[in-house]
Amino acid sequence: MQPDTVATQPIAGQKPGTSGLRKKTRTFMEPHFLENYVQSIIDGIGGVVGQTLVVGGDGRYFNDRAIQVILRMLAANGAAGAVVGQGGILSTPAASHLIRKRGTGGGFILSASHNPGGIDADFGLKFNGPNGGPASEGVTAKIFAATEAITEYRIVEAQDVDLDTIGTSTLGDLSVEIVNPVADYAELMESLFDFGKIRALFASGFRMRFDAMHAVTGPYATAILEDTLGAATGTVINGTPSPDFGQGHPDPNPVWAKTLMDEMYGDDSPDFGAASDGDGDRNMIVGRRQYVTPSDSLALLAAHAHRAPAYANGLAGVARSMPTSGAVDRVAEAQGIDCYETPTGWKFFGTLLDAGKVTLCGEESAGTGSDHVREKDGLWAVLLWLNILADSGQSVADLMAALWRDFGRCYYSRHDYEDVEVDKANAVMDGLRARLATLPGTQVAGLTVTFADEFAYDDPVDGSRAEAQGLRIGFEGGARAVFRLSGTGTVGATIRMYLERLETSADALDQPAETALRPVVDAALTLSDLAALTGRDSPNVIT
Ligand code: VG1
Ligand code: CO
To answer: Which of 89, 96, 318, 491 could tie 373 with a disulfide, CB 3.0–4.6 Å?
Structure first.
């Protein structure tokens, strides 16, 4: 089988964002678009000759077609092997685990994560390195440079590989192994947690609802929660992955997982509720009439991780993305361990995890994970919660109340203004950036600004520097507002406004978040002039 070399030219707009390249599905399906980007990844990482790579995705529309193209290109570029999830399915954390377990050169993960799927929705592709984590900023820059210089790509002409049958076949000189997407991951989970205790919890009548949102986590959750741990049949809902996620928005937050929220706040609700996103790396946690913000979930997991066998000896340290609330910082301080503040996106946690500086990491966007893989991991977080609930015998609401009593409560909310015209979004950011230096000491909406800066991060392990990672404004008493532009959208710009306020008085720990955060919201809107500059009087999504 002779590889074809196909002449091409650079296609504008192939710059990866927070997590790989995301575009409209139809854009990915345009001539040469996918091929150019795959060849640029291969060139950007220095080639794949003799290597084995993991390939899989979240099952969205175009997943299977794109996998066939990637396999033919791996064959043409001299790769030795590909490990592919059956049916083209691999959740992001399962892919990360396979990359590590098999000692491969990395992997191609096909997903636009929480973005909707379908021919008129979104598609995405990202490359994870040999440590199982998202390509670093440095590698990403090389991939992008390759997209701007590309003149040809290599591909073999061949029949489709059968992705549905477990076993090994060949495509030219490439050996293609189709594996069960769940088995290795399930085994890893069993090695981390006390499955016996969780099984006993379910056997005692504990009820749970897990909303897989028609996305990739369905098969994983059904196998682990229902088949292995004995949760009642029907615990997992929307558990069959569909190419358009049942026409839904697979983003696990109170807005998009409203059915689950309604059930958890209704009469006779289950004890525990959870949801995950398109590619299975995010999690939402909700107890009976008790929503847990992702920032609080990270803090709770840090405080109680020792209840699970894998973390029984304590944590090396923790890390959170900058916009995530400071709740976990307070837990880390009490435990005498380091807490790192990184830019948004999982790629920044990799060096800290590899160096053994941190054990747990998290983001306010419902991502939590540990050193067991190099991605955030939705089902892992749910299992750690279950292990904690089983071991403590307490409810979600009791655990949260105790956490807040011990450490204070970080009221937290994120307001998203989606599909804003790019120049208007830039006007908000540029205007605020220009005023930052003048803000400390000023009073706004009854709050006094204590600091205002643009976040930059110096990686303590590899010394790399990431600039322009969001605008931060701190207020007296520990409140904070953060502004940044999303790097995962496919149309227009999304302004994210993150709001937080620490409350330590015992009689003020039970307010609605909107009430507690009202002054911070008012101050943030005044300081940014967001409404006037964008013409928007309210956010599209509040989480
Ligand atoms: C968003 C989240 C960020 C997360 C990223 C990828 O990025 O804010 O915390 O790491 O999505 O998550 P942005 O740039 O849109 O704010 V996933 O689950 O969509 O891969
Ligand atoms: Co995701």
So the answer is: 96
pLDDT, tens digit (0-9, with 9 covering 90-100), for 143-161:
999 999 999 999 999 999 9
C-alpha distances out from residue 492 to 47, 325, 488, 532, Å:
34, 27, 11, 18
**Containing structural domain, residue 307:** 184-407
Pocket-forming residues, ligand 1, beta carbon under 6 Å: 18-19, 113-114, 277, 281-282, 321, 344-346, 363, 365, 367, 486-488, 496
The per-residue pLDDT of the chain, averaged, comes to 96
For residues 251-271, average pLDDT: 94
> Strand 471-475 and strand 447-454: pairing?
antiparallel
Residue with structure tokens 């993305």? 321
Question: Which ligand gives the minimal distance to the CA of 115?
Answer: 1
Global confidence as pTM: 0.94
Same domain for 304 and 397, yes or no, is yes
Q: What is the CATH number of the domain that holds 279?
A: 3.40.120.10
Final residue of a structural domain among 392, 407, 422: 407
Do 361 and 172 form a contact (C-beta atoms < 8 A)? no
The helix (H) or strand (E) run that includes residue 294 is helix 294-304
Task: From residue 72, give the alpha-carbon distance in Å to each of 10, 66, 69, 104.
Answer: 20, 10, 5, 18
pLDDT in tens, 2-26: 779 999 999 999 999 888 999 999 9
Angstrom distance (rounded) from CA 225 to CA 283: 15
**Side chain identity at 119, as an amino acid letter?**
I
| pLDDT tens for each residue of 331-343 | 999 999 999 999 9
